[in-house]
Design brief:
The chain is of the alpha/beta class. The protein is built from 17 helices and 21 strands. The relative contact order is 0.12.
Length: 565
Amino acid sequence: MTKPIYILGTGLSHNGSAVLLKDGRVCVAIEKERLTRIKHDGGNDSVAIQYCLDAEGIQLKDIVLVVQCENFVIPQREIFKGKRLFADTLEPKIITISHHLAHAYSAVGTSPFTTCNVMVIDGCGSPLEQFLELHPEQKELIDEAILSEVQMQCEKDSFYYFDGQNMIPLVKDFSIMSQNSANSLSLPTTQHSIGGFYAAISNYVFGNMDDVGKLMGLAPYGKSGVYDFEVFRFDEKRLFVNEDWKKHFSNPSKGYSYFKEHFDYYANVAKWAQEQVEKTVLKCISIRMNQFPHQNLCYSGGVALNAVANAKLEDSKIAENIYFEPAASDNGLALGCAYYGWLEHMKQPKVIHDGSTCFGKQYSQQEINEVLKKEDISTFEIVEFNEESILLEFCAKELNHGKTIGWFQSGSEFGPRSLGRRSILAHPGIEDMKNHINGNIKFREDFRPFAPAVLKEKVQEFFEVGRNSPYMILVDKTRKEHLENLKNVTHNDGSARVQTVETYWNPIFSKLLSAFYKESGIPVLLNTSLNRKGMPIVETPKQAIDLFKETALDILVLENIVLKK
């Protein structure tokens, strides 16, 4: 029997993660924050790597190659913000790749394409000096104006062609860093990047950087046309950020109560910023695609999580097929590192990915029972279901009666979205359910929307465009005739960040939706992440039980075991 080839990818930036490939397929992956319970945790990679080794039942000596990526430095083998697992070994070999290259490989590795173009847009990638140290052969691609700049510069957008085996860089752009100051509109990102601008506005509006995605949720409450000046410009096909827009914004948020008091003002700012990003993303990618046409496009980097801009990009038909990488932010770096190791370093053929983005370990019934024995659960009703169909029927009835369910099934999702493995589920149409979950379960701002999970074959019946959106990374519009039944998953502008549920990699969640459809006549559930504000998504059974105890969740389903308050 041939010994399997294990390649380990590790991302040591913020949103750190580790990914293990077995013969070219992802066998396990985890984001560090799920284990340490520190939101956006990065740096030292030991805990994430150990999780992957334990889940697969192997040791470090079984790894053939390690590929790593950070942001500003090349991590040492022995130590990086703490001792690393490789400190006392000479094997396996460790190689380092640049930030945007890791983003690019994360997309092509999981995409359905054999060949494609790849666009990477974020706030800040590798410094130019480091990039040239890692990839000196690409110096000829860099504009002379960039090479002659004396200030520190980092990647801001990159464009590649993937020929089925090799990643060929076509356009590389860099930017000087934003000047760090007390100004709320200045952040440690590149000065001329879409991601940097979006982060700056998020900081201005919310007073923190806890979740820049909130800005997209706030924008629909604002009015178009309040601000008529432009942020971005293109010179010689290069993107730049104007500086004069900042003079119009001198009222940064001073906390949540201040934000609420001036809600309309901040909503208008968010609306303007979102529209600026949408049209600039479209123009930037259009410039690259017009120069290097291809029917297939992969899109990654933190900006690729903007579901509203993504939908407009898809509608533009700039490419016949677009794959939006589900783990587009820095949590996907490890994924790209692993695929680089397989495709580029090992020169192995691409193995077609099955479409899943759920790579966590499976927790056994024995492990769940051991946790339950140690927990004080005397006030809960506990039922063990031996037949899946009876469990699904029970959950469907409870959801239809207005109960909220913490849903813990199989291996966890990799990336920022809960897709039916670690989810909070509820009825999409029961009055005031959205406010109840925001206020009493998630403990978060009341303006934030929830997403609908819908049976794939029913998406066109309930949503106007009927997009295929398995990763909850594209918006659609709820059809008017279904607004009442979907009011908890439809934003105030009629939009919805839809998840189309795939049966082949999400079977039990698909069956639950079918059972709820049979019970309620609605093939849609409210689906949000199994966590509360400021908390990473739940990974373990114990974390799920702790969350159940401290929130107003009615029911917790741990595989086939149900806890009911």
